[in-house]
Amino acid sequence: MADTHLETLRKRHRTLDRLIDTTKALARQGDLTHLKRERLLLKDRIAQLSA
Fold first, then answer.
1. Which of 21, 27, 35, 49 has the most CB within a 10 Å radius?
2. What is the distance between the alpha carbons of residues 31 and 28, in angstroms, rounded to a whole number?
3. Sign of CA pseudo-dihedral 10, 12, 9, 34
4. What pLDDT was estimated at residue 7?
5. What does the H/E/C string look like for 1-39?
6. Measured between alpha carbons, how far is residue 45 from residues 3, 6, 11, 34, 36 in Å?
7. What was the pLDDT predicted at 1?
8. Using an 8 Å Cβ cutoff, are 39 and 11 in contact?
9. Gene3D superfamilies of this UniProt entry (predicted)?
10. Helix (H, G, I), strand (E, B), or coil: what is residue 21?
11. pLDDT for res 14
12. Using one digit for the tens of pLDDT, what is the confidence trace for 7-47?
């Protein structure tokens, strides 16, 4: 079950990576900041669960 949750977090992180790239291209700084913050939280959670 933990592996499934971890994989879900990793997929969301990859999705945010792509969304951030798209948002950068559109120069929407407010959205970009929000997405980067969410991506960082996911990265931290993934690291906790992987340890």
1. 35
2. 6
3. positive
4. 93
5. CHHHHHHHHHHHHHHHHHHHHHHHHHCCHHHHHHHHHHH
6. 13, 9, 13, 17, 14
7. 62
8. no
9. 6.10.280.50
10. helix
11. 94
12. 999 999 999 999 888 887 777 777 788 888 999 999 999 99
Task: Give 20's contacts (C-beta < 8 A, 6+ positions apart).
Answer: 32, 35, 36, 39
CA 18/CA 30 separation, integer angstroms: 16
End-to-end CA distance of the chain: 16
- Retrieve residue 34's tokens: 């929000």
What tokens were used for 50?
A: 């992987």
DSSP letter for 27, please.
T
